[in-house]
Batch of 3 targets.
Target 1
Amino acid sequence: MDKTQADAIAQAILEPDLRAQEEIRLKRAREDADLARKRRVAVFVLIGSSIGAAIAYYLDYRFTLGIIWGGLAGSVVGWLITRRAA
């Protein structure tokens, strides 16, 4: 058996493991990207909630509703912005 035949046999044995490792790496990369996107959206939600609370305070409206509606608006804006960036 020469070197090329030995390399071919080793590659045939290791190839399924290499494929499985690549699939795991791709899955982790997708999960990491998804988590990063969710974190960016969370920042928009917090900013929107803050703005909604401030608007509700100055308009003499219910503070909690201002937080909820501001967070909802921030969530929508965040998902739209991160969707375009993805």
Target 2
Amino acid sequence: MKLFVSRVERDQDDIRELYRLCGFTTAEEGLHVVAAAYPSRSIPPRSRFMVEEMYPTIERGTDREGPDLGMGL
């Protein structure tokens, strides 16, 4: 629920703690749980953006760090 709502001021610390407790290290791990818990609802863009900012991925084959937003950049 915290990840689905994703209020930066209120939920970011809780999301970090929940990720730690679950052993998650990537944004996709948490987003997968949200998608499974809310199968009939789309994950809000703000939720995806926030967790990808919190848990950026390193693109394979480059030195650039940051979330892959699927823009093909």
Target 3
Amino acid sequence: MNEQAQTSNDPRDDLRQAKILVVDDEPVNVALLERLLRNDGYRHITTTTDAREVLPLYREQRHDIVLLDIRMPHKDGFQVMAELRELDGEDYVPLLVLTAQIDAETRIRALEEGARDFLDKPFDRWEVLTRIRNMLEVRLLHKRVKEQNRELERRVLERTRELNETRLEIIRRLGRAAEYRDNETGNHIIRMSQMAQHLARAAGLPEERCELILHAAPMHDIGKIGIPDHILLKPGKLDAEEWEIMKRHVQIGAEILSGHDSELMRLARTIALTHHERWDGKGYPRGLAGEEIPIEGRIVAIADVFDALTSERPYKRAWSAEEAVAEICRGAGNHFDPRLVAHFETILPEVLAIRERYSDD
């Protein structure tokens, strides 16, 4: 194997900067091709007379063109082409086959295996340089197109990320708009949504679903926007008529969130509509029971109640974490899904860390 490289002082000389690999078991052929190429100004030429060295050489340098003999010991050109095709997959591998055989069968098989062109032995200087130049022009154009596509894809992904972040921020702010009406800081939705995500993960939901719950849960009480202040902010206990009005916030929230076919909005609507249902069927608005209640609604119900219990309100003191956990456990099998309550107990350290990180103070 022989490799030499020189530094070009001409940045416009893209073709002459191309990396070329010459593979032929006849040293005289290798030497001739290398001399022709160097005399024409090509600077990055690697040669080998051993077909077994082609794959490691190509893997290391990713040559722009491979001049490949067909009849070689150890591995023939067809085996080498198959290895290169497997390595590069759908990429454009410029293979220029060197052959003294001109029969149609050999040429057809070479084309089927990935050859792009042929050089017949003995070599003609003009033909060698012209075919190599033509193939390199295609190769460099292919590389530029790939680079442009990568840049375009990067920009699309970046723009998509920005749009998603903007959408999620709007969702969070909508949730806080509702919470600010009866929660001075609005941190409740941050805490309960993260608690719900952890609980969903503990329950074995797919990570993608857990992420959706994190982003959909902040809108669980968006329907409070439609509840009159004299009821929503009443410091004392609501009477029967006021309570019926208060319960309407779930339908109001579902109506606000309906009409869009994105998975996130559909899940947000489901959570808004079902997080006040109870395991024993005594919840609202539809009196669903057990697993009739979507699991996302059951998850948010636990996270919402726990954070509400441990948060101070104008009409109540904040419960301790121990008191709140005990209340959640008492509700297992009647208010809450007992299996989810058990999972909630296992993630209590994470829940308390969330409360600490997003404290109302």
